[in-house]
Amino acid sequence: MKKKFALSFVALASVALLAACGEVKSGASNAAGNSVDEKTIKIGFNFEETGAVAAYGTSEQKGAQLAVDEINAAGGIDGKQIEVVDKDNKSETAEAASVTTNLVTQSKVSAIVGPATSGATAAAVANATKAGVPLISPSATQDGLTKGQDYLFIGTFQDSFQGKIISNYVSDKLQAKKVVLYTDNASDYAKGIAKAFREAYKGEIVADETFVAGDTDFQAALTKMKGKDFDAIVVPGYYTEAGKIVNQARGMGIDKPIVGGDGFNGEEFVQQATAEKASNIYFISGFSTTVEVSAKAKAFLEAYRAKYNEEPSTFAALAYDSVHLVANAAKGAKNSGEIKDNLAKTKDFEGVTGQTSFDADHNTVKTAYMMTMNNGKVEAAEVVKP
Q1: In contact, 343 and 373? CB cutoff 8 Å
Q2: Predicted confidence (pLDDT) per residue in 19-52, tens digit
Q3: Strands 40-47, 178-184: pairing kind
Q4: In whole angstroms, what is the distance from residue 93 CA to residue 52 CA?
Q5: At what angle do helices 314-330 and 295-308 cross, to 10 degrees?
Q6: Residue 143 — φ and ψ, nearest 5°?
Q7: Tens digit of each residue's pLDDT (9 = 90 or more) over 170-208
Q8: How far apart are alpha carbons 351 and 354 in whole angstroms?
Q9: 241 near 213, Cβ under 8 Å?
């Protein structure tokens, strides 16, 4: 998941400098990394807990903290308790890089979970690599993000995977021979999904329109679309704008299916769209509370509901699994470098979101679901493949 945020010239220059100095490959790091303490194992949280995409970061913080609480209650890792150092990157890429520096140099964490978004993850990884500390993002989906990055791990599927799934679904399930593509042009996440969709879709794209993150009025573009002959609208983007697009489209009488990626996930999407108008909606998720789940996933659902009095999103579930992946890799490890090596060897790890194995680039392909929403409620979920 990636969001492109507006930055001041100074902040942008800072990020550019970090990228220039920090495009570090596996050989340019402190291979041993930070030592694991005799009594505790420090894990850093680097989440978007406030700011533009706080809905993702706060969900992931909750899922990650639940995992830590359960692991500690069960005796910890090799008898050591997990100590969490929780930092808010404020949904800002420059802040995500600064948080990473603080976590690895001041707090001396042995691993980092987060950020949630691809942009923040890209900004954070250089400083983690330099310190020899592995970083796992539960939900960064940008294609190529991990290429050459020995210390970066991704806990979910990539943008191109989502674009292909959407293409197949609108063609095979919705029988859509003509679509409107309406993309957030400020988001690499959205552009990645749109690119893969264009390449995979065999029907006709009758309109290929864009909007920009932060837009609130979509009437002009929707009026233009309404005059077209189409079977579905595909909206690669985040809940903040996608929910408003749904609300305004339905208000104008556009009742065709609206399809999106995992950026539609969360109650905030429904709040923007309103339950009354959030019908005939389809979106991708890496986790579902609607279909039959494993015993492990059922236990997670019950524990999350009991702790937070709410339903977990796919982001909470992915972060929960990410902490367990780190904990599994930390067994027997004397330093963060060994945790990184153990993570890289992970095969068929059974989590609440399914099995995780990391490929040579530390990416994973996971089971995905296409969710069906009507009246603001998910009514069905089905397993889908690209």
Answers
A1: no
A2: 333 333 433 566 789 999 989 999 999 999 999 8
A3: unpaired
A4: 12
A5: 110
A6: -60, 140
A7: 999 999 999 999 999 998 889 999 999 999 999 999 999
A8: 5
A9: yes
What pTM value is reported for the model? 0.79
**What number of residues does the chain have?**
386
Encoding tokens for residue 140? 């960064």
Phi, psi of 194 (to 5 degrees): -60, -40
SS3 265: coil
Question: What Å distances lie between residue 316 and 75, 224, 375, CA to CA?
Answer: 23, 38, 23
The full DSSP string for 177-209 is: SEEEEEEETT-HHHHHHHHHHHHH--SEEEEEE
The answer to whether 9 and 85 have CB atoms below 8 angstroms apart is: no
Average pLDDT, the chain: 90
CA distance 255 to 1: 28
Q: What is the residue type of 212?
A: V
SS3 content of the chain, % helix, strand, coil (to 5): 40, 20, 40
Which residue, 56, 72, 65, 194, is CA-closest to 138? Answer: 56
User: What pairs with residue 281 in β-bridges?
Assistant: 258, 373
Token digits of residue 194:
């749109």
What does the block give as tokens for 127? 């400083």
Contacts of 251 (CB under 8 A, 6+ apart): 277
User: How confident is the model over 207-220, as pLDDT tens digits?
Assistant: 999 999 999 999 99
Q: Are strands 377-384 and 368-374 parallel, antiparallel or unpaired?
A: antiparallel
pLDDT value at 14 more than 60: no
- pLDDT tens digits along 150-162: 999 999 988 889 9
Q: How many CA atoms lie within 13 A of 317 on its CB side?
A: 30
Contact between residue 120 and residue 93 where contact means Cβ atoms under 8 Å apart: yes
- pLDDT at site 22: 35
Query: Could you give the CA distance from residue 176 to residue 110 in angstroms, rounded to a whole number?
Result: 49
The alpha-carbon radius of gyration of the chain (Å, integer) is 20
Q: Which of 358, 297, 366, 292 is nearest to 328 (CA)?
A: 358
Q: Exposed (0-12), middle (13-18) or buried (19+): which is 109, by Cβ within 10 Å?
A: buried
